[in-house]
Specification:
The complex is a heterodimer. By secondary structure, chain A is of the alpha/beta class. Chain A has five helices and five strands, in the order βαβαβαβαβα. Classes of the chains: A alpha/beta, B alpha+beta.
């Protein structure tokens, strides 16, 4: 499975890479919406794991662009605090699942497996 | 104040108007009743008196006859007259007559022989002619009956002439018209009404002659003036004699004390038809008011009957009605004056009373206005001693209550303001911090768990790492509740059965209570209406309350939840009380209870945000949360929620831009 991770915080990307690498996924990372868009334009992905709160353009912007480029891509949102509003907005963009930060490796893997 | 009087709806106007009405009604009723009663009794008295007066007049009239009769009878029994008559001694008879007339002063007098030949007449010189037969009815009756005759009789012109030609002239009465042309002469009456007597003179039981005499009533003043003098004492009222007396020949005034407007005796005028008909024709005694000439009199008439039993005239007495009607007028004046005085007193009293009543009331009105404007220490004036004083005292009590309420409301809103400010600032801080912590925590959790996956870890290291992992989990929980607190979400109200909600919460907590050995009971008010509340948030409040209660209560204790309808500031709602028999809250903790991060629980057992979050949720529903506690006895949390649905207003504590 080919996964794109988008987060402005390198330590989160690093953590995700560490967990998902160990599970044997094909991991690509982007530190900003622009970087993520660029990678998506070059390659196809099964899943995008993205943060919501990012400086400048936020996660929903990222999801919209991703869906533009790759309409079939599955979206998993990771957020510091899951609110009903986030879920409502995510539904419009076709977000499949959510996970709250911080999470344990097992919780992340379970979230991906449940997609 | 003058303006107050004009206002028709003002208390003062109404009071004065009713007082005036009362005095007017009483005054007018007493006026009508009093004047009427008075007048009637006076009139009755007057009528009664006039009847008696008439009797006296009749006695005086009869006395006149009696005088003649007595004098003649005495003369008739004197030997001188008997002797003179039997011997036909004219000179001697003349002497007797002279002596008698000197005492009696009759208008006519004479002597006849036993055959009725007039031998001598008083006032007529003896012509020496042959005697003529008397045509005087008195004499004729004596000749017939041989006994004394006395009384009233009518003498026509011829009979008068036969007695004395001068008498005929004196009797002459001019009858005056009373109708179209008052005072105009319309006829002459030559008949005369006389009173007199005739007495037989006996000589040795044989009729020797008759002596007779009498008075002419026409133009006579003796009887009527004597009546005026005896009965009415010649009393004058408004230049008029109060009492009047009249002798009528038929209906013609022939002797009277009634004066016409010129001041002359009203001879020749006639009585009214009504009186004539009733008295003269029917022979009744008449007592009533009647118009005599131009004035009204209270009058009494009775018929005069002559010696033959014929009704030939009337005897009248009357008192001026003006004297009595003036009594009515005077009484009416007095009553009207009393009524007017009553009205004036009513106005004065009304003015005085309303002044006294209204002064404290106006003070209260002004004070009410001041209270409405926010001044809770208005001047209500001196406390009066009457009922208004009670009102004033109650007013003061009300002001105190208002002050008390105002104070507590201020304190409460101040407390709420501080509380929400506290929560808002802490919320913002917490949100920022928590969000920043989440990312590093993710790394800590990830890498700890990744290391723990290694099989070659020494037990000591594994144990340490497990501690790191578990403590990081703890941090995660703290951060989670911090975020819960900071991001208190907007209400999503829905129709809700409060009892059902509580029942669900109780079910949720039953196991935990069972484990702790605490009895958890719920008594719901069956009569509760449906409320509009956020289900999830209210549930979290209740669960939080029950958890707190469970934490505070040791084995064997009870937690009792109750609902009942309750009003707060006249607004209907539901009161939910959660009472435990737990350890209670120390008094010094009571003020901080709803502060964020305030907790009495052991480290790691509570974040200190539960009550703060709960209070926020209740407040956003427009409700209140209160606590009562006694250390070692237990605590009761009382939540009140309004029935009225609240508009879901999101708290501005964390705006959407700041969302984590």
């Amino acid at each position: 499975m080919k996964i794109l991770i988008v987060d402005d915080d390198p330590i989160v990307i690093q953590s995700c890479c560490r967990i998902l690498d160990a599970e044997g996924f094909d991991i690509h990372c982007a530190g900003s919406v622009e970087a993520g868009e660029k990678i998506l334009a070059e390659q196809d992905f099964d899943l995008m794991l993205t943060d919501i709160k990012m400086p400048g353009r936020d996660g929903f912007d990222m999801i919209r662009r991703a869906k533009n480029i790759r309409p079939d891509i599955s979206i998993l949102v990771m957020t510091g605090y899951l609110m009903p509003e986030t879920i409502d907005e995510g539904r419009r963009f076709g977000v499949k699942n959510y996970i709250s930060k911080p999470f344990t490796p097992a919780e992340l893997v379970l979230a991906i497996q449940n997609m | 104040m003058a303006l107050h009087f004009i206002k028709i709806n003002s208390l003062r106007f109404k009071l004065i108007a009713s007082l005036i009405a009362v005095s007017l009604i009483i005054g007018l009723i007493s006026l009508m009743v009093g004047v009427n009663l008075l007048y009637r009794s006076v009139l009755a008295e007057a009528n009664n008196r006039i009847s008696q007066d008439l009797n006296v007049a009749r006695v005086i009239y009869d006395e006149r006859i009696g005088t003649v009769r007595l004098a003649l009878e005495i003369s008739a029994s004197t030997p001188e007259l008997v002797k003179a008559l039997s011997s036909d001694d004219r000179l001697a008879v003349s002497e007797v007559l002279k002596g008698l007339s000197g005492r009696l002063k009759p208008d006519f007098m004479g002597v006849t022989d036993s055959q009725g030949h007039v031998t001598l007449r008083h006032g007529v010189p003896d012509s020496g002619k042959a005697p003529f037969l008397s045509i005087n009815p008195l004499v004729l009756r004596v000749l017939e009956q041989h006994k004394t005759n006395a009384g009233t009789l009518v003498l026509d012109h011829k009979k008068l002439l036969s007695e004395n030609p001068a008498l005929a002239a004196q009797a002459h009465i001019t009858v005056l018209s009373q109708l179209k042309n008052p005072g105009r002469s319309i006829a002459q009456d030559t008949n005369a009404l006389v009173v007199g007597a005739a007495v037989p003179v006996f000589s040795d039981h044989r009729l020797a002659g008759v002596i007779y005499g009498g008075f002419l009533l026409n133009k006579d003043t003796a009887i009527v003036d004597k009546i005026g003098e005896t009965v009415f004492k010649n009393e004058i009222y408004k230049n008029r004699n109060i009492g009047t007396a009249t002798i009528f020949y038929n209906n013609l005034r022939i002797a009277t004390s009634v004066k016409n407007p010129m001041g002359n005796r009203a001879l020749g005028t006639v009585a009214s038809q009504e009186v004539t008909r009733r008295v003269l024709d029917r022979g009744e005694i008449w007592t009533d008011r009647a118009k005599v000439l131009d004035d009204w009199y209270i009058t009494a008439y009775e018929p005069i009957t002559d010696i033959l039993g014929q009704r030939v005239g009337m005897l009248y007495v009357g008192v001026l009605e003006a004297k009595y009607s003036d009594i009515r007028g005077n009484a009416m004046t007095v009553f009207i004056a009393i009524t007017l005085v009553g009205v004036i007193i009513a106005i004065a009293l009304g003015w005085l009373f309303t002044g006294r009543i209204m002064r404290p009331v106006s003070y209260l009105i002004r004070a009410s206005a001041e209270i409405s404007a926010g001044n809770l220490s208005p001047d209500i004036g001196p406390i009066s001693k009457d009922d208004i004083g009670q009102l004033q005292r109650k007013f003061l009590i009300m002001i105190d209550a208002l002050k008390e309420r105002d104070k507590s409301q201020k304190a409460e809103s101040e407390f709420r303001l501080i509380q929400s400010e506290k929560q808002a600032s802490i919320g913002k801080l917490a949100a920022g911090v928590a969000h920043e912590i989440n990312n590093p925590l993710t790394a800590v959790l990830t890498f700890t768990h990744m290391i723990l996956r290694r099989k070659d870890l020494p037990d000591e290291v594994r144990s340490d790492l497990n501690t790191v992992a578990s403590q990081t989990e703890r941090v995660r929980r703290i951060v989670k509740s911090l975020l819960d607190f900071s991001r208190q979400s907007a209400l999503a109200p829905e129709p809700l059965d409060v009892n059902r909600l509580i029942m669900d919460c109780v079910h949720l907590m039953e196991n935990q209570a069972l484990i702790k050995g605490v009895t958890l009971s719920f008594t719901g008010d069956d009569d509760l209406p449906s409320f509009t509340l956020d289900h999830n948030q209210c549930q979290s409040v209740l669960v939080n309350m029950i958890i707190n209660a469970l934490d505070a209560t040791s084995m064997g204790g009870t937690i009792d939840i109750q609902t009942r309808k309750a009003f707060v500031d006249a607004e209907s709602g539901v009161e939910i009380s959660i009472s435990d028999t737990g350890s209670g809250i120390a008094p010094e903790h009571m003020n901080k209870l709803f502060d964020p991060f305030f907790t009495t629980k052991e480290i790691g057992k509570g974040t200190g945000l539960g009550l703060a979050v709960s209070a926020g949720i209740i407040q956003r529903h427009g409700g209140t949360i209160k606590v009562q506690s006694k250390p070692k006895e237990g605590t009761t949390f009382t939540i009140w929620l309004p029935h009225k649905p609240v508009n879901p207003v999101p708290e501005a504590r964390v705006s959407r831009k700041d969302r984590p």
